[in-house]
Amino acid sequence: MKDQFTRVCWLLILLLPCGSQAVGNENTPLEQALLQAKRLQREAKYEEALQQYHRVLRQAEAAGSSPEQALILKDLGSLHHELGACDQASKCYRQALKLWKREGQVTHPGLAATLNNLAQEEVESRNYREAERLYGRALEVYRSSLGPDCPQIPVILNNLGGLYHRRGQSLRAEKLYHEALGLLQRQPISYPDETANCLNSLGALYWSQRRYAEAISALERAVGIWEQAVGQKHPRWARGAANLAALYVDTRQFDQAEPLLLKAIQTLEGFLPANHPDLGWMLSNYVYLLDQTHREAEARTLKEQVRNRMASSARTGKPVVDLGELLTFREE
Whole-model pTM? Predict the structure, then answer.
């Protein structure tokens, strides 16, 4: 039952786009347009970003430029994933891989990013063996094209650690998380998003092992980094804060959990569809918090509202979660 608690932390790893990728000299109008789309996505202006990606993709298709099409499809897929449309994300990644293969560009960093992103989809589908193969191939491409210390490698190591965590290989996962953090610390410039993500993953691992003090420390550091980097009105901060709030709930620190969880919900509701699984998880945790703080009437009312709201999941098209299960998974 305790594994349910770390599910959203793994989900956070998968939702966040992997490290930024170069797109050549970034001088052409097409490259500038792609950078604008990526910037809109980082700023969580999702609808504008989606429109911009499609505009740039049409331009690349008209120009007959396969490498640019592949890069755009890779980034468009990451946006679909962030919005919960995993089928669309996988479709984009597979189209991009076909283009890389057709062009014979087997060592391009964009290929590695695409392999990583597709591996994320395989993890969500529980195709762990295929995901591990894709992560391994992504590491090979990055190391051969950008070198063994490039900042993209910690992203892959973090994601691969999440895969091992899911498979119950905690020692391998922890080793990879620390390796990723060490690589990030040795970079000449800071990578706050990647660092926070690794700390979030490490906190999830400690949490699952009931190493609560270490888990709280790691997640508090992650949330602090995201707050400084993007502020409290960004989905990345909101997801990290929701993870920390859930840990506070698990350790019965309700006074700290409630305002943090409510702020996270409020922030994320401004960006995601009402029936997105992340919102369902957060709201269900709030139902549990209300129940545990003896506000049973409020809990019952909100539980029914959440059930109606989450009748279908934006991620799978199926019922997102069993709310009854979410309300009991903390029990021994």
Answer: 0.82
